[in-house]
Specification:
The structure is a single chain. The chain has about 120 residues and is mainly alpha-helical. The protein is built from 4 helices and no strands. Helix 1 packs parallel to helix 3. The longest helix has 29 residues. The model has no long low-confidence stretch (mean pLDDT about 85).
């Protein structure tokens, strides 16, 4: 049964990475729109991604699995293009980037009083 558990953990990590890539692309594309769509989506979506990764992989460091590809995609969206950059040219883009980064940090900033992981799973 332990082999199946490892398969489920790896699959959970891969799904978290895929969801992070999709969410980052959606957030980067939605930043020219109103702030009340992109900023809450970044915050709530990344809190969910961090929780999902830690819950499925059952490791406290698993929040990094979605955080790294999300950050790379968002930084690439800041890069200048011939039309101008996607994120840094508006308050909405900068707000989405900041809210998304804070969204990944919120679950790990929670005080752990019983030496438990991010989602309350003992290690």
């Amino acid at each position: 049964m332990q082999g199946f558990d490892v398969v489920l953990r790896v699959a959970g990590g891969a799904i978290a990475i895929a969801m992070a890539v999709g969410l980052a692309l959606l957030e980067a594309v939605s930043t020219p729109g109103p702030w009340f769509i992109a900023v809450p989506a970044a915050l709530i979506g990344n809190v969910f991604l961090a929780w999902f990764a830690v819950s499925t992989v059952e490791r406290g460091w698993a929040w990094l699995l979605p955080a790294v590809p999300w950050t790379v995609i968002m930084l690439l969206a800041i890069a200048p293009t011939s039309e101008g950059d996607q994120l840094a040219n508006s308050w909405t883009g900068l707000g989405a980037f900041a809210a998304g980064a804070f969204g990944f940090l919120m679950p790990i900033m929670r005080p752990n009083t019983h030496k438990m992981g991010v989602s309350g799973i003992s290690h």
